[in-house]
Amino acid sequence: SIANLKYTDLLPHREDAYETSKIFLQKVMDILIDFIHATNNRKEKILDFHHPEDMQKLLDLKIPEYGVNLQQIIHDCSVTLKYQVKTGHPHFFNQLSCGLDLVSMAGEWLTATANTNMFTYEIAPVFILMENVVMTHMRQIIGESWTNGDSILAPGGSISNLYAFLAARHRMFPQYKEKGIASIKGQLVMFTSDQSHYSIKSCASVCGLGTDNCLMVPSDEHGRLIPAELERLVLERKAKGHIPFFVSATSGTTVLGAFDPIPEIADICEKYHMWLHVDAAWGGGLLLSKKYRHPRLTGVERADSVTWNPHKLMGSVFQCSTIHFKEDGLLMSCNQMSADYLFMQDKLYDVRYDTGDKVIQCGRKNDIFKLWLQWRAKGDDGFAKHMDHLMEMTEYMVKRIKEQPDKFYLILEPELTNVSFWYIPTRLRKVPHSHAREQDLGKLTPILKGRMMQAGTLMVGYQPDDRRPNFFRNIISSAALEYDMENYMEYKLSKVKA
Ligand code: ABU
């Protein structure tokens, strides 16, 4: 029995441990497959919620002086998944990354088994070539003129956006790399909409501009940046002698799913010689849909850089984030440190395949295999169908909400798969909509969410924004969703006492 065995009975500690190792791994695999089964069962709870202090009592998390046996290790795996939120459950609408794509997940399993680092071709030859192929394909989807650009996978959309900022500053001030901040005579300023992801503002803080020099451009009632306001703020800062250099447009804002008007923003960037970044971390997947790409992402090929996260709309297993540049060579010249223990120029092979010196990290996780494998399985056509399905599900949900104005209040017509709404409890159904009623609905929203989490039946995000108190943000980005979902949501919301 594996209760009598320890890690020292597994490969590579014992040469004769193949059978034991296989039994151990198959037991782990059974637990994983049971979790996948439960994840896809609508009758299963999404989570078994406990407050942190209670959860700690349910778990044995301590690190022992002497290692536990393999039976305990199997038990630990099982308990961990027992309390994990099933983010691939059909009733999980909580994050921008929902769902569990089995091919992508299989890719992640293989990735863990290969256990390599993406910094050199030397130790990741197949994965480096895959990265080349997939990144080129993604750039071609952005625009034909991007084929000879450059791209890299980064640990999340925020870091992808940071790469865009760094490249923009490097192109305008190449001496910054060696001479630092003193080499820039003047105050750099950047612009993004007041609906953009906070990582854009974070670039200003991390990179020495200060957040006061990240101008939050007002957005319209749909959450789209207003180009005239952008130009006004650029001129305002120029009049102060500042140097406007970077604009980040958002294609799919985090809360409302709005798409900024890229062509108008691109015109302003050209006029004032500013870098145009498009943060399409969330909405980039729609580039794969003939039906929904335009007008949302029209003009994206005019950008200098684009962030696009396959772990969001495309459903790749978390995490998988990409950053693309129209111009080749910038990433390398901006970030290269030429560590001579890794990036020797006299290697056996063409060292242009060593991508590690393009990035600010050293060790880089392999996030490409799961995406390559998923794309092989789906093809462009499968991804296009996936996007169209998500958008159709969104349209269906919006239709169902509109059919029941007494129970639901739709906050705006979504451009993406963010459905923003209030659930109206019985006591407020006859009350005319007003600021006071919004305040009541805003107070109720987290209570409803909490109750549904405690019941384990439904997870949907909520937040306030600068215009309204708490409201639900229902994200449709999981392939597990079918047409019953809104009926289910209506049912669950009506069951929690409001
Ligand atoms: N990076 C934005 C993720 C936000 C969300 O999943 O809700």
UniProtKB/TrEMBL annotation:
N6-(pyridoxal phosphate)lysine: residues carrying this PTM: K312
Cofactor: pyridoxal 5'-phosphate
UniProt superkingdom: Eukaryota
GO biological process annotation, one example: gamma-aminobutyric acid biosynthetic process
Keyword Lyase set for record: yes
Record's GO cellular component terms: cytoplasm
GO molecular function: glutamate decarboxylase activity; pyridoxal phosphate binding
Keywords in alphabetical order: Decarboxylase, Lyase, Pyridoxal phosphate
Subunit description: Homodimer.
Family as reported in the entry's similarity comment: Belongs to the group II decarboxylase family.
Name this protein carries in UniProt: Glutamate decarboxylase
Organism (species): Aquatica leii
